[in-house]
Give the backbone structure.
Amino acid sequence: MFRLKIALAFVLLVSVLVGTTYITIQKQLGSTLESDAAMSLQRASLVAEQSSRLDEFSLLEKARFVAARQELHHAMTAEYEGDLAEYERHMQVHRWLERDQIAFTELKPAQDRNLDRNLMQREPHAPELFTAVDASGRGVATLGKDLLSWFGDNVAKTHPIILDVMNKGEARTDVWLWSYNPTDAKQLYVVAIAPVRASPNSPVLGVIILGNAINNGVALSKQAQLTNPSTKSLSQPSRAADLAPQVAIFHDSKIYGSTFNPTLQRALSDALLSDATKINDTTANNSISIELDGKPYNALVRYFSNNSNAETPAGLILLSDSQAIQSPVGKAQSTNLSAAAAVLVI
């Protein structure tokens, strides 16, 4: 009987110890990880926002560089004779645009990190949208394959910001949807628009438009920067990779690039972008909890430059996986229970 009492007391003491440890791990470690994750998400969102702003500024400097070329000024204003005068102007402007595109492409810096490169060397080196528009707002030349049908289109009618840049004479960045053909699906671009003029006080001859397309590759690159700035992509699975926030890039209520699969991307759009109130709630360093396919996430939104008050806002959504963050709690509890069971068996 005495031995039974001792055994029961031992079992009771071990059970109390295990229960206390379990509750302590759940409350203290769990809440600490949750707090640290919220802070990390805010920091990651700030890094992603600053990186995007730097990419926009790099694009703007490249547009200014192209617009300042004297050869381009001459090609835009030269007197071309004959019935094919406009086509001749197109060919001359196209020639100088190609030269600058090659100059951007051929820059091969020795550093691995984008942060260590100057503005001309930052990736992507050559923007996908590379266009010249004259003072009337019509397209003169653009780089790309089989795009001659676009020549002469009234670009300023579709994007009035071009006229605003020409009127004020100040380069600007913007986010817009673009396709060369009306029948093609529009793609999201971050664009830089720089006025073309021979001198600071001379009339504006047109604008140069450079643009970087937004797609899944851009989102993956942003995620890789937040995981390890010295690498370009996520490779080996690790705790750092598990904790790297998911990234989505949106315009209005649609996502144009993300690190999610198409199913989760649609779920994110329905859960967050369909309600403007939810987006506003995430812009004051306050993350909100959403559920995608039964999995909990914390989300924060950061806008592109000068875009927070736009009629159709665009920006980045960063999401942290709540289950991955809390995984150490589950492992610690499992280890604790296993150790207690072993003690009781012994």
